[in-house]
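We modelled the chain as a single entity of 106 amino acids. Its sequence is:
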Amino acid sequence: MSELIITKDNFEKEVLASDKPVLLDFWASWCGPCRMIAPVIAEVADAYSGKVKVGKVNVDEERDLAAVFGIVSIPTLAVIREGKVTAISSGYKQRAEIETMLGVEK
């Protein structure tokens, strides 16, 4: 499963109502560290397809969602389980750190 584009229109269905943990990547096209972490996020999405949903939230296009999560710097990663944030972290992360946030360490 590839990354999903998360918007205010599909947030409830894809994130809050998800039966799987959801990793949200809050990013923007102009953000250098966001571009650096993008391939790592894609690896996680591929490696845990069917076990974890991975969503991308463009903070320039989805300001309301970014505000709900209190995003003040990007990239920010948030893990949501059963509609609740269980982990949140800003800045570049290596794959192992993301796996730890998700609780799916190899």
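As a brief sanity check on the tokenised model: Residues 16 and 83 are 4 Å apart (CA to CA). The longest strand covers residues 84-90.
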